[in-house]
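Hey, I was hoping to borrow your eyes for a little while. No rush at all, and the record is pasted right below:
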Amino acid sequence: MPVLVASDLDRTLIYSAAALALTMPDARAPRLLCVEVHESKPLSYLTETAAQLLTDLGDAALFVPTTTRTRKQYQRINLPGPPPKYAICANGGHLLVDGVSDPEWHARVTARLADECAPLTEVRDHLVNTADPLWVRKHRIAEDLFAYLVVERELLPEEWVKELAVWAENRGWTVSLQGRKIYAVPKPLTKSAAMRELARRTGADLTLAAGDSLLDADLLLAADRGWRPGHGELADADWTAPAITALPDRGVLAGERILREFLRAVRGGRAAGVTGVG
């Protein structure tokens, strides 16, 4: 039976220049590999050591990139190792098989959203009407599934974010603040549901996961074992659970550590999946 490894990407395995957290002396900084270019500029990186670890992981397990990114944003990433057969995009709204969205899965997801939470148009209108242009740089709709804002973080009022979270909660939506982005995502739109579907299809008997944000919590809880880095929303909240390992590592070196943990668990087999460390 294959081992399925579902990992978040941004600030978990790959990092923007602003998120690298290279706190060591310059001469001791790790060599970096660029894995994403956007508008002719390098955007995301991992260490060269992490690149080799990811290649090894792709050979040893079923590695599934799992992201809130849209399909278009995901397809900009050029990860080392074997091309993943499966990927989870748009926070579970699209399940890619050999790069193509599975239409039956997407239809199931959209039907559930229509049944269980307020429509996207209501949330979009609320964001437009309440977010101050002083600190909002962009309003975005992703895959007609959820909304997000790009903001000037230092100008963003904490109280506004809290009020938005309460407003969204009452309508079946979740709010997540990640770097300069505020996400409003329907609660039924989850990475965990897509991971469970892939585990069912592939017959995986062990699932491993990693992530750093509130939108990754359900994924980590659904896996047999999960890891979170020492940065991000989950670390800020000191969030953990019985089968979750809270790593101290921060920045791009956390990505390297997570890949080592994945490989150790894969090679340990089923036993590693049932003895998670809190």
